[in-house]
Amino acid sequence: MVEQTIGKSVQRKEDLRFITGKGRYTDDINLPGQAYAVFVRSAVAHAKIKSIDSSEAESFPGVRAVLTGGQVADDGLGSLPCGWMLHSKDGSEMKQPPHPVMAADKVRYVGEPLAMVIAETRKIAKDAAELVAVDYEELPATAMVNQAQEGAQIHAEAPHNICYEWELGDQEATEAAIASAAHVTRYSLVNNRLIPNAMEPRAALADYNPGSDELTLYTTSQNPHLARLILTAFVQLAPEHKLRIIAPDVGGGFGSKIFVYSEETALAWAAKKLGMAIKWTAERSESFLADAHGRDHVTEAELALDGTGHFLALRVKTTANMGAYLSTFASAVPTYLYGTLLAGQYKTPNIYVEVDAVFTNTAPVDAYRGAGRPEATYVLERIVNLAAVELNIDPVELRRRNLIQPGDFPYQTPVALEYDTGDYEASLNKALERAGYADFSSRQEEARSRGKLRGIGVSCYIEACGLAPSRMAGSLGAGVGLWESGEVRVNPTGSVTVLTGTHSHGQGHETTFAQLVASKFGISVDDVEVVHGDTGKLDFGLGTYGSRSLAVGGSALSKAADKVIEKGYKIAAHLLETERDKIDFDDGEFRVRDSNQSKTFQEIAFAAYVPHDYPSEELEPGLSEKAFYDPVNFTYPAGTHICEVEIDPETGKVEVVRFTVVDDFGTIINPMIVEGQVHGGVAQGLGQALLENCVYDEAGQLQTGSYMDYAMPRADDLPAFSVDTTVTPCTHNPVGAKGCGEAGTIGSPPAVINAITQALGIRDISMPATPEKVWRALGAGRAHV
Amino acid sequence: MYNFNYHRPTSIDEAVKQYDEAEDGQYLAGGHTLIPTMKQRLSAPTDLIDLSGIKAMQGITRSDDGAEKMLQIGALARHEEVASSPIVKSMVPVLSALAGGIGDAQVRNRGTLGGSVANCDPAADYPAAVLGLNAQLVTNRRSLDAEQFFMGMFETALDEGELLTSVHFPRPEAAAYVKFPNPASRYALVGLLVAKTNDGVRVAVTGAAPAVFRAAAMEAALTDDFSVSALDSILLPAGDMNSDMHASAEYRAHLCTVMAQRAVAAIVAQDQARARQVTSEVTSESTS
Ligand SMILES: Cc1cc2nc3c(=O)[nH]c(=O)nc-3n(C[C@H](O)[C@H](O)[C@H](O)COP(=O)(O)OP(=O)(O)OC[C@H]3O[C@@H](n4cnc5c(N)ncnc54)[C@H](O)[C@@H]3O)c2cc1C
Q: How much is the pTM?
């Protein structure tokens, strides 16, 4: 009998390869005769391109070609589309100005590609790129989100730089409830702009075979099929069946590798145009300039409460920065992944949210780990905390009074979602206990004796994951369905090759999915191989983001495995000369009930491929099944984060001394991997709360373009995390999983800020809460007394 | 990075000659500043003269310089060498602590004392030690006082082609360096070295202004009363300080006082520990 591994921390199968340097990333792949591309990028934030003189670069020894945005336009390549159509309050469609593959007439952010130099070596391409002379007619730049509507117009299609003005919820009821409420808490906040910083920068290698008209693109993608669909159906780069996209090992994405970008597209176009293989690997400075950034909201919120501390209404008004162009999912992030989450874990009867999305002369902004949900959680968990302070109610008690209770499910929120299941108070209680919430004051006393200010902050988050029911997504404007595919190929010896449309770039799918399938068949995890990331190998898939892989992709695999087992029953019935219904499948064996006759899974697989004794009339040979799974609802992971900080009042430095997380992710396959996802997510959340900040100056120049100025969290910035779970399995998918990839970034920032404000006895501090801000807040605090 | 000619001299004279002959030469020490700027194409020397083969610029020794014992460190000493050297630990322990707090392990295994000092980055750590400990900077041509050496942001008294060969540190009575790191780069947002030396109390400040400087007001106060509280009311003028997205001048000025006080507290604690040790030695002698 093979050991069952569901719920066990199996060591990651992929790690030996990664930690011994045997991973195969895009830049590790080389093709004979390949050339190298370097992009010429806009040096200014907003300008007309008067002319581009590439003659000197073209005659530079070793240069194969210099291609410009003008040539892209001449070749009739389509614009890079945004995959999610939003409508404004007045019913009009969002403004979707063209997003050229390379800029031809106008540049709209620093770093925007406008030409590419292709040469024998990377160095030659770089030398020659400096010789490309671009003559700009500079225009005033609109770099700041809060000045976008008054600033210089960036696209002819978008007056006042407004992309859309979206709303959700019942405005009248919300306003009426606020007007008559016993108490209203008001809060203005900025959700800071972030740069993703995956360890592996974006890279691509494009190859064209004129003999077969096949175009192959190796690239750092979280969703190769989606990229292929966009590049063929919208950009018209090639017919869909002639384009193969391979995303091999990918070193982190955090959302930034979901999108279809200029550089990879231009590379594939150039490879086809020139009939050669071309490689591009971003330098870190290019990643800072031209990967899609995250967050960047300015928000005002009001929370109305009755005399007993029950929430009556929430009103939120947000301006969201889209950057210079609409990136692939940009429009959905501050709307359907944000406004819909504003109920949080609470029974707030009335919610109304308005979001103005604006263009600015900055890099495009799109989904970044958490995508919309950290922004929603931040608004809610900060304003709830403020209300507690204003009403002099313990913040935990105020939350408790308003929590949705287990008996309330399924729970319909006033902002479109229907939560299927959960037990929020259970996670809250467990977290409070683990965090030693009750004894906080003794730790605070002790810290005070050392001259330190100690604070504790709680945040109860919910997220909608498992993207997404296709019909629902479609009705909300998605350009694609968000189901997933899975294929389970049993080999003649009984080992299994699993193909999934999701993509692993750090999440450990090769292990988790192997555990899932191995447990279905009662075979060893080592006998299951997971294949992903190649449009040439699997039918179609939607990729990995929105914590969807296990909940949606795993469900597809679970269904495919069930089909295999079903066929196995029939083969077994034939071989064992009995009826299907008299057989049980368990522990890798098909057994005739009440007898000692059985066939192993491996014997059945062999019989399917060597069908000498086989029910050939009724059954096809082979043992390979596919399934597609379209979820019926989102999944709703939820939990509680508790942060404890100690502040040095002399310098303002904040140290996170304890961080406790209790999540409900539904069924867990591999607790170690889940814990790792939580650690990484919380590290990013603490990064946002304390360190990270993307800064542009008024002229639209990026000020934080390297690690000298962009502060990433490091190991010594973080405490040892205390992580635990509670479990209410998802009710509507076969795995029971909800998703765990983003929760850490979602729950943690407000917990940190709640802790800091409590320690300092102040109302608010903006993220990142840098030492200087804290020091100034202390000064302001002192001035008041 | 652009192409360049690479040289690896084995003597100081050969290095200087190669420099003089080059169209636009640059000395290469640890390369931890120079190589990144070359990769970013901000610097484009025609010739790189790699100093790593010059024995005369290596090593850490104790020398008797007249009456005083001096710690002599070759310009090519890597930060890690300084951090772990027993001679440094016994003579000028503050230096090993400072060197051990530079960058990360990779940086410390490449970066050199000479490179850091010659580069004169406003946020670098070493300049605080050189100025605060009143070191002598020895070049292929002369010997300079620390006071003469640091001229401004990335600007030193080194002439064109002049090679810093070693730095000589007198042994302080006591010293401490306290740094408030920039959260992004981990260079010094502000770094204060306080030393009790033969010629009085010295306080050197790095990170705060365009170049390292001595805080005269703090020195005066500490000379009168070497205590943490002596600095309570001293705030260096913010007008002279750097202001950028990481910290305003006002905050830097404030941090200078806090870091100086911490350095003083560390020295007072060292003194007390030493006094305790002496007492216990005396006691044990008397009991034996
Ligand atoms: C990631 C990172 C983090 C860092 N963190 C810190 C930090 O926290 N604190 C800190 O102080 N520093 C820090 N540094 C700087 C580093 O410690 C080096 O001290 C610094 O880069 C210069 O030393 P080097 O030996 O690398 O000099 P190089 O880069 O080789 O040279 C620097 C300059 O000095 C010149 N030069 C070198 N040696 C001599 C000589 N003997 N005579 C005359 N001219 C010479 C060179 O021509 C060049 O112009 C960091 C660097 C990196 C890359």
A: 0.96
